[in-house]
Specification:
Low-confidence stretches: 236-248
Helix content: 55-70%
Strand order of the largest sheet: 4-3-5-7-6
Radius of gyration: 27 Å
Order of helices and strands: HHHHHHHHHHHHHHHEEHHHHHHHEEEHEE
Shape: globular
Number of strands: 7
Strand content: under 5%
Distance between the termini: 68 Å
Mean pLDDT: 91
Oligomer: single chain
Length: about 600
């Protein structure tokens, strides 16, 4: 590391503390949460890959993240089961379709839910900590040590990141490998050599093997590499290199510098100015070389992907998986946004970002973006590295992804944190006292909300969710109580609250009959819950007297469905509940 990038020792200490804070939140919160909707199939699929080498389960996601989780399960003595359903799943035939869901439930139940979820989630938590360290490590070179520390602070206390880092899903993992690849590419473009090229290819293979949406890294990387031809990253290194022989002047009869072997006048013509043509030819040559290096990275990444599939007889498994993306989504499913249902909302992901990121983080990110764009002394390539990838991911998500959750935007968040860190550093550097006070107040705001929403980070919403319609519901957890008024699915409730519901019932309603309307896949009986199933449709009218626990998913959607089918149906779910458990179950004591 160059002296310019070497941070003060206390920065390293603070960075270590922030990573530890992140790991504590993620790990301790994960112990309180039941399996979410997508975890059982990923657990089953990963074990099937590693122990049978058959890639048939859950092909709509690439294998890397599932294999990482399965490695830890195998180390803990949890293996692929020997059962008829397991044999059908790996044996071929349409009878095996979607069996990874019930098989995953069986693996979790038979080996103990707490034990399986501990070991399956542990590598994902560690990967989230690694991503935080990586943001700081790379951020020192992009925006300076102080700004990188600010970025790590925003990352470590981001509820969306903390929530999804503790789940056996793809989103934080693909983000970690995407940042790793960009860091490797950054280093390669500074000092190109074959060793760094190979590292880029390996990292690119990892990000492509983590989630299929990572294919959008390819155009982003191509843009960055092409831009580096126009705006080289290391002019100082070039200037410091040993002096070479001066380039001979080019005349009509001189060999053309483009490498064709022809005389200059026979190649590019004697009419043009030789100096400009030399520069143009050299740049074209460099672009060709850059394209070749990009292709070499892709070839290495392709080998990595084939290795993740254990070099199958069918070399097109990855392409088959890409074709299956969203294959398990319900045809005609209507998305939910602010009390309305529609097949698609063009503003969905913009709204999700503005509602589910802390307001202080949003403010700092916007301020950091303005600082970056207005900074005339900031190298163009730093601006491009901070902006190209999140813009590509955001546009691709907004245009192509189903409106199912803020989690699809997680790959954009580290860049928002880096911009926010840039703004924090500027505020703390200000000579005016108000700048430091403002920065301290914003940091305190982030800390308070992180503590207020703990351990229910998945359900976090900022204050703007309540501000216009129900400001009295704003609390230490921001506007999280108003979340069901805006979004559903993994934004508020993904089946994660069964353990907390059981604990609440044992204290507040032990022995009372329970009517349960649950959004999730892992059976509540796995946590000892005794209940009568209340179908969602039965809640469209106010139910009979009794104790009802309703998943936040249905608190959000049912009144919206009522507005479409029968105005007023399900409106009782908008009345104040007797309690909210884990921000995911609404308790109604109907008298």
């Amino acid at each position: 590391m160059s002296p310019a990038h070497r941070p003060p020792k206390f920065h390293l200490l603070l960075a270590g503390i922030l990573v530890a804070v992140f790991l504590f939140q993620s790990f301790s919160a994960s112990l309180k949460k039941s399996p979410v909707f997508d975890e059982p199939p990923h657990i089953a699929s990963g074990l099937s890959y590693l122990e049978t080498h058959v890639f048939r389960a859950n092909l709509q996601h690439p294998p890397l993240m599932k294999e990482i989780g399965a490695l830890f399960l195998l180390a803990a003595g949890i293996h692929w089961p020997k059962s008829p359903i397991a044999d059908v799943l790996i044996g071929g035939g349409r009878a095996g379709d979607r069996l990874e869901w019930p098989l995953g439930n069986n693996i979790i139940h038979d080996n103990g839910a707490d034990r399986v979820m501990f070991w399956a989630r542990l590598p994902f938590i560690l990967l989230g900590g690694f991503l935080g360290a990586l943001i700081y490590w790379w951020g020192r070179e992009l925006v300076g040590s102080a700004a990188a520390l600010g970025a790590l602070f925003l990352y470590a206390l981001d509820p969306t990141i903390v929530a999804h880092s503790a789940l056996v899903t793809m989103d934080v993992g693909v983000t970690a490998f995407a940042v790793l690849f960009l860091f490797a590419l950054w280093r390669y473009l500074h000092h190109p050599n074959w060793q760094r090229l190979v590292l880029c290819g390996l990292a690119l293979g990892a990000v492509l093997g983590a989630k299929f949406s990572a294919v959008f890294m390819l155009p982003a990387a191509a843009v960055l590499m092409a831009a580096a031809v126009r705006w080289p990253l290391a002019p100082r290194a070039a200037a410091a290199a040993p002096a070479e022989k001066p380039v001979a002047k080019v005349g009509p009869n001189s060999p053309c510098p483009c490498g064709s072997g022809k005389k200059y006048k026979k190649c590019h013509g004697a009419g043009a100015a030789p100096g400009k043509d030399v520069e143009r030819s050299l740049r074209q040559h460099e672009l060709i070389m850059t394209a070749n290096m990009f292709l070499a990275m892709c070839v290495i990444a392709g080998v990595v992907i084939e290795a993740l599939y254990f070099f199958p007889s069918n070399p097109f498994l990855y392409a088959i998986g890409v074709a299956k993306v969203n294959a398990d989504h319900v045809v005609g499913y209507q998305s939910y946004l602010h009390g309305e249902l529609a097949h698609r909302f063009t503003s969905y992901f913009a709204a999700a970002f503005l509602l589910k990121e802390p307001l202080a983080t949003i403010f700092l990110s916007m301020a950091g973006l303005a600082i970056l764009l207005r900074g005339k002394s900031t190298p163009v390539m730093i601006k491009l590295f901070l902006l190209v990838t999140p813009v590509v991911f955001f546009l691709a998500t907004a245009l192509l992804a189903d409106d199912l959750g803020m989690r699809y935007l997680i790959p954009t968040l580290p860049f928002a944190h880096l911009l926010g860190g840039l703004a924090l550093a500027k505020l703390f550097e200000k000579r005016l006292v108000w700048g430091r006070y403002l920065a301290a107040a914003l940091c305190l705001w982030v800390v308070v909300e992180a503590a207020g929403i703990y351990p229910d980070h998945l359900s976090y919403f900022n204050e703007s969710a309540c501000l216009l319609e129900s400001p009295g519901m704003i609390g230490w957890d921001g506007g999280s109580r108003c979340g069901p008024m805006w979004l559903d699915d993994s934004n508020i409730d993904w089946g994660q609250g069964l353990k907390q519901l059981r604990a609440w019932l044992d204290v507040h309603a032990k022995g009372r009959p329970l009517h349960l309307t649950y959004f999730g896949y892992y059976p509540p009986e796995g946590y000892g819950l005794q209940y009568q199933n209340a179908e969602p449709g039965s809640l469209m009218t106010e139910p009979k007297p009794g104790l009802y626990a309703v998943s936040a998913q249905f608190v959000a959607r049912l009144p919206a469905m009522g507005d479409v089918m029968d105005p007023g149906a399900g409106a009782w779910l908008r009345t104040p509940p007797a309690a909210i458990v884990g921000h995911s179950f609404y308790i109604f004591d109907v008298r």
